[in-house]
Amino acid sequence: MSSEQNVTAFLRQKRDYFHIILTYQNDDDSITKLSFSTSLKVRGNKKKAEMLMQKIRVEFVIPRTDEQLEMEKKRMKLIIKKFLAESDTLEEVTPLTESNKEAQKIIKVQKPKGLLKDMLFSSYLVYWLEYVEKYTIDPNTYSTYRMNIVSKIAPYFENKVSTLSNLTITDIQEYYTQCIDGYKIGKKEYKPIKPATVKRRHANIRKALQYAVDINLIPKNPADSVELPKIEKYVSSIYTKEEIDKLFDIVRGTKLEVPVTLAAFYGLRREEAIGLRWDAINFEKKESPSITQSRSS
C-alpha cells in the first residue's frame, strides 16, 4: 500500500545531477530524510526527473524498522534503474484481471531487463515480488508476501550472500532449520517459528524460484527437493464456563470487551472480530443476530 500522503519529495541539484529528496515522519514524530541519485543531468532532463520523483514518492512505503528501511532503499534504487532503462517500469506492467490474460502470459514468459542469474537471491526475491507477483495477487495477499519476503526471508539470504544461480537445496534447507531453531543476524534476533509458518515461507521461495526457471535464469528449482518440517496436528483447547466468565470480568469496560465477546459467542478469530463489518451482521434476528463472515485459509 502506498504511503504517498505521508511522504514529501523534491528535486535537488548536486554536481550537475538531479537528486530526489524524500522526507517522511516516523511513529515517534521524528523526521527522516533520504536522498536518491537519479543519474539524470540537470540540463534537458527536468521533466523526466519530475516524473521519476513522483513515481518514487508514490511507491515509497514508510518503513518501521532499520531492516525495512534498508530494503526500501534498495527497492527505490531498483525502480530508478528500471525507469531509466525505459522498460518494465511499474506503469508498463498492468494489473492482471480476467480480461487481461495476454498480459499475464507476457509476464510469465519474458525475462525482464535487469534480472541476472548472478544477482543476489535476496535482490531477486524483492524484484520478483514487486515486478511480477504483485500484479497477479490481491492487495492483502501482496502485503503478507511483502512482510515475509522483505522482513524475514531476504535478510537471511542477503547475509549469506547467496546468489540466484548458486542457491542450493542445502542453502534453503538450512534456512528452514534456522527458522525452527531461531537465529541472529548481527544484533537482530529472529525468534523460532512453527513448521506451518516455514511452510508458508517455502511457498514464497518456491514460487519465486519457479519463475526464474520459467524464464530460463536457472535450470531447475532447488526448492522442489527441500524437506519441510513436520507440521504437528493442532489440538485446540476450549475454555470452561468458569474461565469464560472470568475472561468477561477481566475485559469488561475495556476496549477489548466487544471483540472478546464476539469471539466467544460467534467463534470468530482475532482478525475477524477486529475487521467485522456492519453488513456481515443479520439484525433481523433481534434476540440472536447472526454473523456471516468469510474466512481465508
UniProtKB/TrEMBL annotation:
UniProt keywords (A-Z) are: DNA recombination, DNA-binding
Q: Where does this protein come from, organism-wise?
A: Amedibacterium intestinale
For this protein, the record's Pfam families field holds: Phage_int_SAM_3 (PF14659)
The record's listing under InterPro entries reads: CB, DNA_brk_join_enz, Integrase-like_cat_sf, Integrase_recombinase_N, Integrase_SAM-like_N
- Domain annotation Core-binding (CB): ranges: 119-213
Return the SUPFAM superfamilies for the record: DNA breaking-rejoining enzymes
GO MF terms held by the record: DNA binding
Q: Does the keyword DNA-binding apply?
A: yes
Q: Which GO terms describe its biological process?
A: DNA integration; DNA recombination
Listed transmembrane segments:
none
- This chain's protein is named Core-binding (CB) domain-containing protein
